[in-house]
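Hi everyone,

Forwarding the result from last night's run.
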Amino acid sequence: MELKITTLEGKEAGSVKLSDEIFGLEPRKDIIQRCIQWQLNKRQAGTHKAKGRAEIWRTGKKMYKQKGTGGARHGSARVPQFRGGGRAFGPVVRSHATDLPKKVRVMALKHALSAKAKDGSLIVIDKAALEAAKTKALIAQFSGLGLTNALIIDGTELNSGFAAAARNIPNIDVLPIQGINVYDILRRQKLVLTKAACDALEARFK
């Protein structure tokens, strides 16, 4: 697969040949869905907590005698039936993370990249760099490229001026190649790769 390389100003800067083993697969929704679910499960905090009856600070004395009251039989006031009592089967602090084999994660990333390439939502630029961190100037360049909702992947290190200028633009995410992931690729309409990011992906999946 061959794609044209453009600059931030919208000018042509040659072309790049992308591997069909990474960008030319037929996307499988089931693999992509498994990876996204794994990511969302892993990032869930799991800090929710409710007190059980053993954790309630309240007397454990029997409320009233067993018989003769005409009411239901009750013992401790800590039980879930009463206001201020413990909760039955309430949430506890736990990890929501699930397991997913590394091979499946690698496959899901390839299929996500292939999905963007198949939809025509993949753009390759020569570099993501700005001399001055001016958000207004970067918005103008993005509008020229038709980028209003995009994920931009650069090389191992981000250009500080570009990252600072893009920070305040809504629906625009900028990540180094180490941070590329299936969820962020699919939550944005366009995927923008720099030439350095393409080279890094080729080397990563060799």
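The helical segments are 20-23, 29-43, 102-119, 135-145, 160-166, 182-187, 195-204.

Cheers,
N.
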